[in-house]
Amino acid sequence: MPKMTFVERDGTRRDVDAPVGLSVLEIAHKHDIDLEGACEGSLACATCHVVVDPEWAAKLSAPTDDEEDMLDLAFGLEKTSRLGCQIVMTDALDGLTVGLPKAG
Ligand code: FES
User: Fold this and answer.
1) What's the chain's Rg over C-alpha atoms?
2) Most buried residue, 1, 22, 84, 90, by most Cβ within 10 Å?
3) Among its keywords, does the record have Methyltransferase (predicted)?
């Protein structure tokens, strides 16, 4: 099974199992990572904001306009910010690393 790494706000790295087909948000919840996801993946909030490790950012499919619009509302936006509910795990993403945003 692929794995992914969450970097928590204090810099702690958490390596977790990342089943193919689950979103980063679902994976976070499975492992008690503090990522909110208030709208449960329906692109109506920005509380599932994660900052993708720059090495991985280019490997993800590009965000949709709806995701971009929602990201504009996120706090602590960075160049590689994405919505965790829109990143779906695949075998190719084994090792994916995302950080929780410092603010918000
Ligand atoms: S959980 Fe609301 S946009 Fe991702």
Assistant:
1) 12
2) 84
3) no
